[in-house]
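Field notebook, page 217. I keep forgetting to write these up properly, so this time I am using the form the group agreed on. The chain and the ligand, S-adenosyl-L-homocysteine, are recorded exactly as supplied. Prediction of the bound pose follows.
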Amino acid sequence: MDEYQIARERMIQHLREHYKIQDERVLDAMTAVPRHFFVPEALKAQAYKDNALPIASNQTISQPFIVARMTELLELNNQSKILEIGAGSGYQTAILAFLAREIYAVERVPQLAEEARERLQKFNVQNVSLRCADGTNGWENHAPFDGILVAAGSPSLPEPLLKQLRQGGKLVIPIGEDQKTQKLTRITRSAANDFQTEDFGACAFVPLIGEHGWKND
Ligand code: SAH
């Protein structure tokens, strides 16, 4: 029991009723992980609102609905090995860690990576390895992954991520030709050289910056 429990339960109810999130495991994870723990001190009171919030370095902690939707789309289970690109605050990372076996998380901004690592440690999350690097190159040493979640908008599909996806695995990534809006896209690798694409509607993420993403800052 914490002082935000009622706000958190209201958020879950909104995810279920308004946004039609149906995966009970995802809703359980979002009930268990205190979002207020991952937002800047000054914004704690807003932690359970239905929107993204600013974190350090001009980045954002994603809207709860987007976290729920992307997690649901991965169709992971407690044996899954997941790669997350753009760990940011570490909130999405903690949700994935609650549901899957092993999480490899990559964050490009050193300060964010450091803070996320500290938070996850304080929260006693054991199954996450987090590194500061350009995630558009994936994390080759730990590939293949059952699922890959990219939490920043990419101009196109980063080739290394497709290569590091296990057969049957799913990549969930916002793709858009301009930096402001994207389409939430899911790629399923149904066979070694067979990739299916599904479109889950418009979304707006901060840009994915790197060798296989946007080149500018
Ligand atoms: N899921 C995070 C979202 C953070 S916003 C949260 O809810 O807190 C997206 C993050 O992607 C930012 O922290 C940004 O620094 C990071 N990012 C952008 N390009 C990246 C890249 N090439 N590799 C790794 N992280 C990247």
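OBSERVATIONS:
- The longest strand covers residues 165-175.
- Residues 59-62, 85-86, 88-89, 91-92, 106-109, 112, 134-136, 151-152, 206, 208-210, 213 surround S-adenosyl-L-homocysteine (CB under 6 Å).
FOLLOW-UP: compare against the apo run.
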